[in-house]
Amino acid sequence: MSVAGRWLLYSLLSFLLITLSVVLLTVLLVMGINRDPIHHVAGKPNKQALKQIPSEFLDIYQEAGAKYGIPWNVLAAIHKRETNFGKTTRPGDPERKNMISSKGAIGPFQFLPSTWEAYGVDGNGDGKADPWDVEDAAHAAARYLRDHGGQEDLEKALWHYNHASWYVEDVLRIAEGYLDQTENPTFAAAFPFQWPLPGTGPESISSGFGYRIHPILKTRRFHDGIDIPAATGKPVIAATGGVVRFAGKLGGYGNTVILETVDGIELLYGHLSSIEVRRGEHVKGGQIIGAVGSTGFSTGPHLHFTVRKNRMPVDPLKFFQP
């Protein structure tokens, strides 16, 4: 083969290798983004959901939820709570006045015009964002919740949606009632967890799971986990084995570690003073993952511990043996 021929062959091989590397890098980046647990959506709909939710809406909720990282069942619950899936508009109401609130909120998801102007979405791709269209409104609601921190603190985002604690409680109750709780047969295999702060126990909890008067805001707010006071620097351990899906600063949680178990359960450790693991690392139950601190929105050194199943917070005490 001539010198020119060899150079031509080498150039072709180099081009192919570079192209292949770019493709592989793109695939890895996309896989990395999609593996972020914060973007997981809820599980399968149960019989109640299939019976109560109009069939044409379920795909809309799931598509919008997947796009914005918000559980589909929360979007369904908002639609149910706001306008009963649009059924507040009855025959003989051509102007749809029954979907216009006393404060001027409009459409199936009850957006104020000013809010719609900021968050409206053309969800159905017809070239316009219409607050009266269910698909557009569902995507806009998911966008609104995401932009108000719904991927990290769903309760806080819901409070912003309506500014009422009772509303948050109602939506979460409806949303939980739409999930198939039997879809994960290995759920019980996660029991029992190790207590995340050795040397302490449930009797050390200063603030439990559920509604409470927020220690800083002084208003009734939903607490999505438990608070365990301890001295700054006290080691925090993994309650069970899993993969680190997040390690870093996370809004009001401060320095945070999120583990995902083989069952898809998420464990969040917040307000840490230091983090001893990195994203993607596989950890064993009992392994030190960080230390107690008071970073983020905190009144003093403690561990905030949250357990999420299907992206919904559940009482962590259910995961520990009495």
From TrEMBL:
Residues 221-316 form the M23ase beta-sheet core domain. Keywords: Membrane, Transmembrane, Transmembrane helix. SUPFAM superfamilies: Duplicated hybrid motif, Lysozyme-like. CDD domains: M23_peptidase, Slt35-like. Signal peptide: none annotated. Residues 101-152 form the Transglycosylase SLT domain. GO terms for molecular function: metalloendopeptidase activity. It comes from the Bacteria. InterPro entries: Cell_wall_metabolism_enzyme (IPR050570), Dup_hybrid_motif (IPR011055), Lysozyme-like_dom_sf (IPR023346), M23ase_b-sheet_dom (IPR016047), SLT_2 (IPR031304). The chain crosses the membrane at residues 7-31. This is Transglycosylase SLT domain-containing protein. It comes from Planifilum fulgidum.
